Amino acid sequence: MENKKREARDDDDRDDGNDEMKMEKFYSLLRSFRDARDRRRRELMELEKNESNRKKMKAATTTTKPKAEVAFEFQDFTTDIHFRKPPLVFPNPISCDTSRGINKGKKIKEQQDLALDLKLSL
C-alpha cells in the first residue's frame, strides 16, 4: 500500500516538474512573440518616418516652374481641321418630299410598313 502511495507521489512530482517546464516554455514563446511584434512595429514606424521625410524633402527640393501664359491668336482659329476619318453620314429615316402630294401618302404608308413595330402589347 505504501509503495503505491510513494509511486503516486513520485508521479505527481514528475507531472508537476513537467507542467512547470511546459509553462516556462509557453511563457517564453509568448515573450518571443511580443518581442517580434514590438520589433516589427518599430520597423514600420521608422519606415513611415523615412517615407514622410523623403516626401518632405522632394516637396522642398522641387521648384515650381512658372506657367507660360496662354494667349490665343487669330491664326489658332483659322487653321483647317483635319480629321482622321471622314465624318459619318447617316441617311434620313423619313424623307421630306413635300412637292408631290399624291405620292406622299404612298411613301408614308410604305415607310410605315417597313418601320419596326415598337408598340408593347400585353
UniProtKB/TrEMBL annotation:
Principal place of residence: nucleus
Disordered: annotated segments: 1-21
Keyword Nucleus applies: yes
Biased composition (Basic and acidic residues): 1-11
Compartments, record wording: Nucleus
GO biological process: regulation of systemic acquired resistance
Cellular component terms per the entry's GO annotation: nucleus
Record flagged with keyword Nucleus: yes
Family: Belongs to the NPR1-interactor family.
Name this polypeptide is given: Uncharacterized protein
